[in-house]
Amino acid sequence: MSTPIVELKAVGKHFRGADGSARAVLEGVDFTLHEGEIVALLGQSGSGKSTMLRIMAGLIQADEGQVLYRGMPLYGTARGIRMVFQSFALFPWLTVQKNVELGLEAQGMAPDERARRAAKVIDLIGLSGFEGALPRELSGGMRQRVGIARALVMEPEVLLMDEAFSALDVLTGERLREEILELWQSGQIPTKAILVVSHNIEEAVMMADRVLIFASDPGRVRAELPISLPQPRKAESAEVRHLIDKVYELMTASAGRRGSNGLISEREVKLQLGDRLPQAGIAHMEGILELLAEEPFHGHADLPKIAEETELTDAELLEVLNALILLGFTYLTNGDILMTELGGQYVKANNTERQELFGKQLLEHVPLIAYICHGLQQDKSGDLPEDLFLKLLRFTLSEEEAERALRVAIEWGRYGDLFEYNFNTGVIQRPELTPKL
């Protein structure tokens, strides 16, 4: 193995909840980034991937463990490490040239030298002729090129890319990814290692020498897949498709527990009241169940095939699958999705029967929804403010995660005819107390 550049040893990070208690975002993270490799990091939203990158970049400090850069403890930012953000993070009042020069200016470099270096990188990244343009005058792909140029002009040893292509349309993202690979392979950039955080499994397989799978709650490295295919890789090749299938298998392996027959029979961990809920809409869940029931699948499908048919992103698909597994409609094994008997009943049912079945599964498997229903039954008025449940969720989830969990719970509960919700007042109500139109 080549020389380590960045090492994380038993790294942990906590954030404070609304009650002042510490919530683990990262725990026991061990990771080494070596010279000459591209590593892709995959995991569900909220698993702590971006937090890990920010710790590596020195933007935030770890609460536990050690971060080493070239064998020395990392305190604050390192000149040899630069980060590219999903949101472009450009200064809107500065031209392309000035945005790219910004880091060099902060280091005190003379104007002539920083202009020369910026012009070289702007040309390298395909932005010649746009030096005087403002970010608002550029397309999304061009703005991301500026973000990449701003990182590359610092001549970093390590380039950290946090969902750098996800805000772009598919073709633009693919083209920019291929250009970064060409610059890397041709030695036109001095960067010695790249770490890419992504939700796109194909992107990870096409770029990386290693793919790491991140677990959630708290975030940690759960699995690793070395990739020895030479570059350039063809997305349609059997070797790449096999690796994509393998990554799906690794990412879904924790969705349940294998029984004696080798199949996943139940979730590995039952949901608790304050856990995040899969961000899955009813239409997507029903769409996958109906697709799975049809030819040529007949209740059993390869996950990449389902992804192609639904045109959902990998992140969206995994959220929907988690929801279907949670509710007992499907299970996963060896990277395949299989419909349960209950899932088959759901597909054959009429709309009213579907709602009844959905509501029954919610009460059995989603403690937050069961808790809301219990509270509504106990309250004489039959209605409760949503803030009551948001306060509860904030004890274990961040503000944003608490909002998302409650939004999902409300959507699911309303569909299951367990309660209603007044969008004007933010009040959750027993369904029999809500006037029918």
What does this structure look like?
One of its GO terms (molecular function) is ATP binding. Belongs to the ABC transporter superfamily. This protein folds into three domains: 4-251, P-loop containing nucleotide triphosphate hydrolases (Rossmann fold); 264-346, Winged helix-like DNA-binding domain superfamily/Winged helix DNA-binding domain (Arc Repressor Mutant, subunit A), CATH 1.10.10; 357-433. It is 41% helix and 21% strand. The protein contains 15 helices and 18 strands. It has helices at residues 49-56, 96-106, 111-124, 140-152, 170-186, 201-207, 238-252, 282-293, 303-310, 314-326, 341-348, 351-365, 367-378, 386-393, 399-415; strands spanning 4-16, 22-34, 37-42, 64-69, 72-73, 81-84, 158-162, 193-198, 210-215, 220-226, 257-258, 264-266, 300-302, 330-333, 336-339, 383-385, 420-422, 427-429. The strands form five sheets. The chain has a six-stranded mixed beta sheet with strand order 6-7-8-3-9-10, with helices on both faces. A four-stranded antiparallel beta sheet has the order 2-1-4-5, with helices on one face. Helix 5 (170-186) links the parallel strand 7 and strand 8 (193-198). Helix 2 (96-106) packs across helix 3 (111-124) and helix 12 packs across helix 13. The N and C termini lie far apart (68 Å). Mean pLDDT is 83; it is low at 255-269.
